[in-house]
């Protein structure tokens, strides 16, 4: 990278450049000691819809007018499936889905895996491959699964296929989700929304249900 970065400030450029070069890169491949994921006994039955974790979530919230409105369903194993219809609102290039929107759809589908393990986790890392352009009006068939668990680290992957569950592969992602407690949201979220969420008994029940493992 040349000194055009950061308005040409060579000091900042060097500092940021070296940080990028030396930053540790955790592999998205589970380490040898990682465990197979366990489907929680109270996970939704195969085919059962997985409700939204938060009404205002951009990915799954039914009360979010600008959102993707993804509705994932439980799979047979530690996996979930979902369909996402690309609309004109999701364009990047004319008539084609924006890559960031597709990454969001993958991220949200991966997030729904929390329900299969009854663990609250957030995305630490998401590595996405865009293999084919995805036109507006396409139904993207998403499938996410947990591959392995190592302490708080959840190794998972997702695919998005065009036109059907066995259609051509358009996008895929490998991700590392990190288990957190409810306090992660309470401590970091904006007061206004956190207060509203804590006053909503359904929201509190949804969040707390994950904290008790068998
Ligand atoms: C009543 C209240 C209502 C609340 C209601 C809430 C209900 C919610 C229910 C369900 C939510 C589901 C939401 C799904 C939505 C879709 C998914 C998203 O988009 S999530 C948003 C985007 N992600 C973030 O905003 C994370 C931002 N990052 C962080 O907050 C931290 O970095 C965090 C929590 C990920 C880790 O921080 P640390 O301090 O807890 O832990 P450390 O020690 O840093 O990491 C633990 C291990 O993970 C590795 N790790 C962490 N980040 C990594 C990374 N980026 N790449 C590789 N490895 C990483 C570390 O190397 C470490 O590994 P070693 O144990 O040492 O082996």
Automatic annotation (TrEMBL):
It holds the Pfam family 4HBT. The keyword Cytoplasm applies. Residues 23-46 are annotated as: Disordered. GO terms for molecular function: hydrolase activity. One of its GO terms (cellular component) is cytoplasm. Belongs to the THEM4/THEM5 thioesterase family. Its main location: membrane. It is found in: Cell projection, Ruffle membrane; Cytoplasm; Membrane. This is Acyl-coenzyme A thioesterase THEM4. It catalyses: dodecanoyl-CoA + H2O = dodecanoate + CoA + H(+); decanoyl-CoA + H2O = decanoate + CoA + H(+); hexadecanoyl-CoA + H2O = hexadecanoate + CoA + H(+); (5Z,8Z,11Z,14Z)-eicosatetraenoyl-CoA + H2O = (5Z,8Z,11Z,14Z)-eicosatetraenoate + CoA + H(+). It is an enzyme of class 3 (hydrolase). One of its GO terms (biological process) is fatty acid metabolic process. Its EC number is 3.1.2.2. Keywords: Apoptosis, Cell membrane, Cell projection, Cytoplasm, Fatty acid metabolism, Hydrolase, Lipid metabolism, Membrane, Transit peptide. It is a peripheral membrane protein. It comes from Streptomyces tardus. Residues 95-161 form the Thioesterase domain. It comes from the Bacteria.
